From TrEMBL:
Organism: Wenzhouxiangella limi
Subcellular location: Cytoplasm
Family membership: Belongs to the class-I aminoacyl-tRNA synthetase family. ValS type 1 subfamily.
GO cellular component: cytosol
EC numbers, comma separated: 6.1.1.9
Major enzyme class: ligase
Gene this protein is translated from: valS
Sequence motif: 'HIGH' region, positions: 40-50
Protein name: Valine--tRNA ligase
Residues spanned by motif 'KMSKS' region: 526-530
Binding residues annotated for ATP, in chain numbering: K529
GO molecular function: aminoacyl-tRNA deacylase activity; ATP binding; valine-tRNA ligase activity
Domain notes: ValRS has two distinct active sites: one for aminoacylation and one for editing. The misactivated threonine is translocated from the active site to the editing site. The C-terminal coiled-coil domain is crucial for aminoacylation activity.
RNA sequence: GGGCGAUUAGCUCAGUUGGUUAGAGCGCUGUCUUGACAUGGCAGAGGUCACUAGUUCAAAUCUAGUAUCGCCCA
């Protein structure tokens, strides 16, 4: 083995071997354990959030696979309607073509071509990360069988009256020219303006003033509303106003919606271009007036001088005209919330179109019940509040999109615009007895991507085809075990899956939903291209040069003027680029940071720390392998194990229990921490060091049983630890395991096929011996360094005082103490030793002296002992305070009181020892001080 | 405005049903190249647990309020 751990080379080696061996496929044996991958966008590349969540999923899958569960990790990607069209359109434009050159069918061909050539970037990247998914079952939402599920769902929902088509206000992206869902709208706080406009009364008796942030929409106003209780305007209700610039007369109505405190208490109502106004208009029987074309230019419903103007030009023109007519009263800055499309970044228009909707009352009720009843559980549990709030305020779901790429809506129209819904045109014709003479045209729109993702749980398991369902294990794997995802798609996807799978199968899609935090940069900022703080997980695995990183962060930006600042910040933060940490270190970092309910500030220093940890593991393995040889080691007989081997095995068993408990609560952070501490602080720092004396040639000759037991324990602990670590760091554990499996006597081809370790009962006797030994060694080491005693030079140790138990342990472990504390020999103290030439070390009741060659610096030793004394006094004080409190003694549980009593004894003892020692030194000090 | 969360060492975070002198990693200080590892060893410094009040024999932990920050919804 190399002296240092080199992730790059070894990680390349293992993945394809695993995949080829088929060990990621469900075994079909044991209790099923299934995880659905939230299908990433086919145009996407792996970002930190994916890498994080995939790591958690993979850790769980590998863990459960090793525990004998029948694991299925269902992976795949979704077809991402808008995003994919944008990518392919850009590709066409880069070739000098135009999207308009393409007919629908040809464009879709291009999309498929693109999909086959470059649509699997993210799945390749998932393999780099070590994702142990069953790739043979990978699905794409546009696959024929998944498409069949989509059509079937649409048709059935329509038959049940849960899907309807109708004119409604939707969020319209005038650039992409499609409807988008509420969830795809980002509300951004922006500085805008608000205008006060005078609407004259038709009877010439004054006017009313309305305030608006969108003056151009007055062209579509149908009325002005006031609050029914507003005394100021009581006589105005029912009167008519002259709508400026249009020559139209509009009435004043009364409606509760109006807030009399806001502005003048008069509100213009534009049902065609505002969601709230739509409601008001509907209540009062007004037909909405749509003044925009699909690209948000003014249409023919408006006066001629505005037609054809873009919405922003129209605003300028309207304001100018109002000024001219003396109807503009005021213009002032106004903080407002602007709705923007999350894909295009453009301001979204509430826009009146015919769209398809899914009714949400019945489905929403079902979705709520499935969670309220506990069939689906959120982890952490408080996410149920978010879910509940949304489910109780559901709007009907707009599922149609004015795109080409996606599942085409299975609805046909005849020349009279009668709608026929069915699985195919043929089915429609048969069912409705439509002869060949009747021309049918299919609806041009497609379903939004989330409609197909909502079916992910049951459609990937073969639904609705009974044969496929049997083959895929529908009954076996549904409900799946746990869904791991971010809070941001609870509504987009989680809720919709619960509703759809629940409605069509009567089952929940998953039993638990683990909601992860968000990965932020080391300063707590959200990662985004425009901030230039994005980290690419692949760069953390492979490393990246500074210049390349700067290029990556500043190329193809939406706002190129930020490039300079981003380049500068990047050069400051990563002066040497990013080193290669390897996939394992990245995975370990993610799991170590994965606490509950918290966002994660991703710090490269943590990643480096865990890379170092893996290097430590690597070297512990090197040491072990150097000492255990190539052959299978004989298993020591019962009773042949030395105390320290029993100790490390006991600690190992406790670690197994800790990891099991942590993982059952999804506390990945606690699981990895237990492993980190065990490997570094117990196995490496102590057991390895303690094994060295036993393995020395002379010692081994003298005590071959202990040497044998030690060798076997080294191999056994290392092998078991590798299995415990494997779900988190699959590559390095496989690499090392292949070398240690023979000495450890384990039969399997790959660590991923081994079984998860079972914890045995701990060994308290061995643990207490080892703790004593560690305390003694640490006390001696502290004394030596604090007094600047030559660290390398062997020194004698004198035992001044100790309990019979101490003396017995000294007898048993003397050789080890000598070795670890670098002592020449250990012997009882006697009168020959002048305390002035000794340093003191305390471990429990054991009082030890380290005689020094020359004069000890008495002042320094006094200071050191004083410090210890202070510490002990403080401890005693707090204990005494408690025990002095009658109510504490009376009320606290007996074991707590007893514990305090024991502690009091220990403190008193230490204080007595230290005080005596200090007294003697002071005495010496005085006699040594030249007068 | 409503809801959720956070505030613990210089930084990033643990801290379970209240019960040692509140822990870890990184960073920092000192020291050591000893045959696993300098991506390291050994030793050490560093905290008024945001603030206030309350409950309790006992509060980082429970309750109420305050402050600051973040997210979601309107």
């Amino acid at each position: 083995m190399d002296k240092t751990y080199n992730p790059h080379e070894l990680e390349q080696r293992w993945y394809s071997r695993w995949e080829q061996s088929g060990c990621f496929m469900p075994s079909g044996q044991g209790e099923p354990y299934c995880i659905l991958l939230p299908p990433p966008n086919v145009t996407g590349t792996l970002h930190m959030g994916h890498a994080f969540q995939h790591t958690l999923m993979d850790a769980l899958i590998r863990y459960q696979r090793m525990r004998g569960r029948d694991t299925l990790w269902q992976v795949g990607v979704d077809h991402a309607g808008i995003a994919t069209e944008m990518v392919v359109t850009r590709q066409i434009e880069a070739e000098g073509g135009k999207r308009d050159d393409y007919a629908r069918a040809d464009f879709i061909d291009r999309v498929w071509q693109w999909k086959h050539e470059s649509g699997s970037t993210i799945t390749r990247q998932m393999r780099r990360l070590g994702a142990s998914a069953d790739w043979s079952r990978e699905r794409f939402t546009m696959d024929p069988d998944l498409s069949e599920a989509v059509i079937e769902t649409f048709v059935r929902l329509h038959e049940e009256g849960l899907i309807y088509r109708g004119p409604r206000l939707v969020n319209w992206d005038p650039v992409l020219q499609t409807a988008i869902s509420d969830l795809e709208v980002v509300n951004s706080d922006e500085q805008g303006k608000i205008w006060s406009i005078r609407y004259p009364r038709s009877d010439g008796r004054g006017d009313v003033v309305v305030a608006t942030t969108r003056p151009e929409t007055l062209l579509g106003d149908v009325c002005v509303a006031v609050h029914p209780d507003d005394a100021r305007y009581r006589d105005l209700v029912g009167q008519s106003l002259e709508l400026p610039l249009t020559g139209r007369q509009i009435p004043v109505i009364a409606d509760d919606y109006v807030d009399p405190e806001f502005g003048t208490g008069c509100v213009k109502i534009t049902p065609g271009h505002d969601f709230n106004d739509w409601e008001v208009g509907a209540r009062h029987g007004f037909a909405p007036i749509n003044i925009f074309t699909p690209t948000a230019t003014i249409n023919d419903r408006a006066p001629a001088r505005y037609r054809g103007l873009d919405r922003f030009e129209a605003r300028e023109r309207v304001i100018a005209d109002l000024k001219t007519e003396g109807l503009l009263i005021e213009e002032k800055p106004h903080a407002m919330v602007v709705p923007r499309g999350d894909r295009s970044g453009q301001i979204v228009e509430p826009y009146l179109t015919n769209q398809w909707f899914v009714k949400m009352d019945q489905l929403g009720q079902l979705g709520l019940e499935m969670v309220e009843s506990g069939q689906v559980e959120f982890v952490p549990g408080n996410w149920i509040n978010t879910y509940r709030h949304w489910m109780e305020n559901l709007q009907d779901w707009c599922i149609s999109r004015q795109l080409w790429w996606g599942h085409r809506i299975p609805a046909w129209y005849d020349d009279d615009n009668n709608i026929y819904v069915g699985r195919s045109e043929d089915e429609v014709r048969v069912r409705h007895q439509l002869g060949d003479d009747i021309v049918l045209r299919q609806d041009a729109d497609v379903l939004e991507t989330w409609f197909s993702s909502a079916l992910w749980a049951h459609s990937t398991l073969g639904w609705p085809d009974p044969e496929r369902m049997a083959a895929e294990g529908f009954d076996r794997y549904l409900p799946t075990s746990v869904l791991i995802t971010g809070f941001d798609i609870i509504f987009f996807w989680v809720a919709r899956m619960i509703m759809m799978t629940g409605h069509f199968t009567g089952k929940v899609p998953f039993e638990q939903v683990y909601i992860t935090g968000l990965i932020r940069d080391s300063h707590g900022q959200k990662m985004s291209k425009s901030k230039g703080n994005v980290l690419d997980p692949i760069d953390l695995i492979d490393g990246i040069e500074l210049d390349q990183l700067v290029d990556k962060r500043t190329s193809s930006m939406m706002q190129p003027h930020l490039a300079k600042r981003i380049a500068k910040a990047t050069r400051e933060e990563y002066p040497d680029g990013i080193p290669a940490f390897g996939a394992d270190a990245l995975r370990f970092t993610f799991t170590a940071l994965a606490g509950h309910g918290r966002d994660i500030k991703f710090d490269l220093a943590r990643c480096a720390g865990y890379r170092n940890f893996l290097n430590k593991l690597w070297n512990a393995a090197r040491f072990t392998l150097m000492n255990v040889g190539d052959a299978t080691l004989p298993v020591p007989a019962e009773g042949e194990l030395d105390t320290l081997s029993r100790w490390i095995l006991s600690r190992l068993d406790r670690t197994i229990t800790e990891v099991d408990e942590a993982l059952s609560d999804y506390r990945f952070d606690l699981a990895t921490r237990a492993l980190y501490e065990f490997v570094w602080n117990e196995f490496c720092d102590w057991y390895l060091e303690l094994s060295k004396p036993a393995l020395q040639e002379q010692a081994a000759a003298r005590d071959p049983a202990t040497a044998r037991a030690t060798r076997h324990t080294l191999a056994r602990v290392l092998e078991t630890t590798l299995r415990l670590l494997h779900p988190f760091v699959p590559f390095i554990t496989e690499e090392i395991w292949q070398r240690v499996r023979v000495p450890a006597g384990v039969e399997a081809d790959s660590i991923s096929q081994t079984r998860w370790p079972q914890a045995a009962a701990p060994d308290p006797q061995a643990e207490s011996d080892a703790e004593w030994l560690k305390a003694v060694v640490s006390a001696i080491r502290s004394a030596r360094t604090e007094l600047n005693l030559a660290p390398g030079k062997p020194m004698p140790l004198l035992i001044e005082e100790g309990s019979p138990a101490d003396l017995a342990r000294l007898e048993r472990f003397g050789d080890l103490i000598r070795s670890l504390a670098r002592l020449a020999h250990i012997e009882p103290a006697d009168d020959r030793h002048d305390p002035a030439t000794c340093a003191t070390a305390l471990a429990g009741e054991l009082r030890m002296l380290i005689p020094l060659a020359g004069l000890v610096d008495v002042t320094e030793e006094l200071a050191r002992l004083d410090k210890q004394l202070e510490r002990e006094k403080k401890g005693l004080e707090s204990v005494a305070r408690k025990l002095g409190n009658e109510r504490f003694v009376a009320n606290a549980p007996a074991d707590v009181v007893e514990k305090e009593r024991v502690r009091r004894g220990e403190h008193e003892n230490a204080i007595a020892d230290l005080t005596e020692r200090i007294e003697r030194l002071r005495h010496v000090d005085a006699s040594h001080t030249p007068s």
